[in-house]
Amino acid sequence: MAKPVIMLAAGGTGGHIFPALAVGEYLINHGWSPVFVTDKRGRHMIPKEYKTITISAASPFALRLHMRLWRLFHLGMGLLSSACTILWRRPKAVIGFGGYPAVPPVIAAHGLGLPVMLHEQNASMGRANRFLAKRVRLLATSWPDTKGINQDNKTPVIITGTPVRAAFHQIGENGYTPPQDDAPVRILIAGGSLGAKVFGETVPEALSRLPDDIKARLKLVHQVRSEQIEDVKARYEASGIDANITTFIHDMGAEIKQAHLVICRAGASSVAELAAAGRPALLVPFPHAMDDHQTANAKLVHDIGGSWLTPEAEMSAGSLAGKIAALIADPARLTVAATNIMQLAKPDAAKDLADHIISLTKKGKAS
Fold it and tell me: Distance from CA of residue 220 to its chain's centroid?
């Protein structure tokens, strides 16, 4: 007998895809068949063994009219594809995780009378979810007092946290060990699923300025853009730093597990993974994120002493080198931050979201 289907719709960045995967993992383990819907960017982040539908989608916001119309056309094509997928796969419900590729499946499901809910990962609600919120039965958020929720909207709101895969929570359960005297210092540098140009420019320069005795201890994993690989590799080699350079980290859990310090963006998914794993971080919010939601995320972690907030505009090589050197010299600070960030861990987030969407399937179609 075929397993019942739940559709998970997510935008094409890790911040949307990874929470969807965590919920999908739970659904599979509890007798459901998840079907993922995303765009071309998101498709390569989803394991091949999962059923995935790739649709056309784009933000309708553009300065020029012809670009706006072209993007609306893409959304329309995505809506048609989503409706056909729903009629073919016959999901019992749909859950959207934000981003414009989630808009067509949610709209199609709502129009066809299916139960729909949303999950907002960030401390400030994204435009896509703001647009969709009044069309769903339930809105789940990661943070209390999430900004951007329309108070006139009668959709019930629950707080679940951001779901992360079970492997990250297992890392946190095993605790954190800071770098020991004269032993290797493992640093993970990740600029988000799409990479961050500034990380490939400023971080290698900062690390090259560290004292030789510290550089000799460094063991790096650094995610960079494909066009930066050769330059970054050459800079680390010239500095005598042991670095593994990659364009995409396929097993983030394995890399976080080894890390003494993480330097990364402040997307909600990244923050949730760090909290679950209990790893201290230098958070560098993406300054052009919608409504500056990454700064809001980073501030929440910084305020409880779980990370160090570094605005990109203030991230000079010299200042970053100073921060890293100070932390390596004082491992106790890293341990305190690792303990503090775990206050934000929500080990039941994936279960809670899955249980809510499953409960909506039992209430039948919208009237």
Answer: 21
Length of the chain: 367
d(CA 84, CA 69): 23
C-alpha torsion sign, points 348, 350, 356, 361: negative
Helical residues (DSSP H) of 311-348, grouped into ranges: 317-329, 331-341
List pLDDT tens digits, range 220-276.
999 998 899 999 999 999 999 999 999 888 889 999 999 999 999 998 899 999 999
Token couple for 156: 């019930």
The model's pLDDT over 70-92, given as tens digits with 9 standing for 90+, comes to 676 777 788 899 999 999 999 99
Contact 20/28 with Cβ under 8 angstroms? Answer: no
Measured CA distances, 327 to 227, 281, 323 (Å): 31, 11, 6
pLDDT digits (tens, 9 = 90+) for 298-320: 999 999 999 999 999 889 999 99
Query: 110 near 98, Cβ under 8 Å?
Result: no
Does residue 245 contact residue 264 with C-beta atoms inside 8 Å?
A: no
Please say whether the beta carbons of 95 and 7 come within 8 A. yes
Single pTM value for the model: 0.84
Domains and CATH numbers, the chain: 5-163+347-361 (3.40.50.2000), 168-344 (3.40.50.2000)
- Sheet harboring 281-283: ordered strands across? 242-246, 218-223, 185-190, 261-264, 281-283, 307-309
Q: Which residues lie across from 157 on neighbouring strands?
A: 139
Residue carrying the six token digits 């935008």: 11
The DSSP symbol for 133 reads: G
Token duo for residue 325 = 């050197």
Residue with tokens 């048609």: 80
